[in-house]
Amino acid sequence: MPPDLQALSFQTGSIFTPGAPINEKDLFAGRSEQVEKIIDAVSQRGCHAILYGERGVGKTSLSNMISAFLANRLSFVISRTNCDISDSYSSLWAKALKDIEASKRQPQLGFPSRQAVPLTAPAYEALTPDSVRRALQDLSTMASLIVIFDEFDRIKNTEVITAMADTIKALSDNSVNATILLIGVADSVNELIREHQSIERALVQIPMPRMSDHEIRTIIDKGLARLT
């Protein structure tokens, strides 16, 4: 293969990434309804969201774009946690809270110089919906928080699912400036969080269908425009 074609092939592979989520806004296309619903949830205190659909439809790519879509709208910090089958409620929130704590050392991400009192290491080992609510309440005085739990469908422990629903209710009831976004493979909300009826008023349900032909063509056109 000639060198110029090799270079073009390499560039094509870096732009079109079917094996990995999109993480550049310029290469993202469509999903305007889902984007608007997530922004609405983030902008309203006490409101949270759950994004669901079949595997490979772009749920993670959409969540990767949240910071770009919210740019210049508000001061915020995003924590992103990938769930696995071994996770407990405490381990999920330990990962999320440590991300937020780390962000406090990076003022450019949204935190001013004032620092909240961090949770101690032992406190991470026995987290409850109330202790998480208190921690987020303290941290959210400095910036709006968006806490994403991706692959939530991998959580099979019903106690963990119930505790997450209780957390959403506690955050909503106390109008904490933090939004939880649950993402998972499912045909319905009930498959991801069976206790959702008790938090229905606080939970924006966002189904993610397969991309339309128009959206797919738009992604191709944007990618081709980047090739030189």
Structural description of this entry:
With 228 residues, the chain is an alpha/beta fold. It has a single domain (31-210), classed as 3-Layer(aba) Sandwich (Rossmann fold). Helices cover 44% and strands 14% of the residues. Strands 2-3-4-1-5 form a 5-stranded parallel beta sheet, with helices on both faces. The radius of gyration is 19 Å and the shape is globular.
Question: In summary, what is this structure?
Answer:
This protein has 228 residues and is of the alpha/beta class. It has ten helices and five strands. It has helices at residues 3-15, 32-43, 59-64, 66-70, 89-103, 121-124, 129-139, 158-173, 189-192, 213-226, and strands at 48-53, 76-82, 144-150, 178-185, 203-207.
Descriptive labels:
44% helix, 10 helices, 228 residues, Rossmann fold, alpha/beta, five-stranded parallel β-sheet
Topology record:
Elements: H1 3-15, H2 32-43, E1 48-53, H3 59-64, H4 66-70, E2 76-82, H5 89-103, H6 121-124, H7 129-139, E3 144-150, H8 158-173, E4 178-185, H9 189-192, E5 203-207, H10 213-226
Parallel strand pairs: 1-4, 1-5, 2-3, 3-4
The CATH superfamily is P-loop containing nucleotide triphosphate hydrolases
Averaged pLDDT, please? 78
Query: Distance between the terminal alpha carbons, to the nearest Å?
Result: 18 Å
Report the C-alpha radius of gyration, rounded. 19 Å
CATH domain class: Alpha Beta
Computed structural class? alpha/beta
CATH topology: Rossmann fold
Biggest β-sheet: strands ordered side by side in the sheet: 2-3-4-1-5
Instruction: Give the percentage of residues in beta strands.
Output: 5-15%
Largest sheet: 5 strands, parallel
Count of folded domains: 1
- Helical fraction equals 40-55%
Proper CATH architecture? 3-Layer(aba) Sandwich
Q: What does the overall shape look like?
A: globular
- How many DSSP-defined strands? 5
Low-confidence stretches: 22-27, 108-122
Specify the oligomeric state.
single chain
Tally of contiguous helical segments: 10
* SSE string: HHEHHEHHHEHEHEH
